[in-house]
Design goal:
This protein has 165 residues and is an alpha+beta fold. It has helices at residues 13-23, 30-36, 84-98, 113-121; strands at 3-7, 42-49, 54-64, 67-75, 103-109, 125-134, 139-147, 151-152, 155-156. It has a 7-stranded mixed beta sheet, sandwiched between helices. Strands 8-9 form a two-stranded antiparallel ribbon. A hairpin with a 2-residue loop joins strand 8 and strand 9 (155-156). The longest helix has 15 residues, at 84-98.
């Protein structure tokens, strides 16, 4: 299966929103994705697979100076359990490091054990809690953080394998 991670485009929004509705109890609207598309401080990428270039997943990260916040990562249910979310996350973490981002943050539902395991396998650690952060159903969010390798003095620190951290 051919997999390519590329910047999201306007023509991807309908598929992204479909994946979002199949992944989250309180999904973002198509309009929310359209507003994010092309934002100068946003990395918004889609994973396309196969010769038909089907959108299999997406990842959105907001960057402010040396910090980044992972806003959303989702994979179409038909493509889950193939390591695609981890692959997208790995690629974006390396990209962030190359752009000088030192710290990545995210929030995750306390009950989302699969996502928590994914983030933990990539070096994210729980640093706090936001009470009643999520709606539908109301639930706490766990705040997680990961320090990133960044370029120092014209040399790059080895990214290595994020799964080993």
């Amino acid at each position: 299966m051919i997999e390519v991670l590329r910047p999201a485009r306007a023509e991807d929004i309908t598929e992204i929103a479909r994946i979002e509705r199949g992944s989250f109890a309180d999904p973002w609207s198509e309009e929310s994705f359209r507003r994010i598309l092309g934002g100068h401080s946003t990395i918004f990428q889609v994973l396309v697979v196969g010769s038909e270039n089907a959108v299999a997943g997406y990842i959105i990260v907001f960057v402010i100076g040396p910090d980044a916040e992972l806003l959303n990562v989702a994979v179409d249910p038909a493509y889950r359990r193939r390591g695609l979310a981890g692959g997208m996350l790995d690629a974006v973490l390396i990209q962030l490091g190359h752009h000088g981002v030192r710290t990545a943050f995210l929030e995750v539902r306390e009950s989302n054990t699969a996502a928590r395991a994914l983030y933990g396998s990539r070096g994210f650690q729980e640093i706090g809690r936001r009470r009643n952060y999520y709606r539908r159903p109301v639930e706490d969010a766990l705040v997680m953080r990961r320090q990133l390798d960044v370029a120092e003095d014209d040399r790059r620190e080895s990214a290595g394998s994020f799964a080993d951290r």
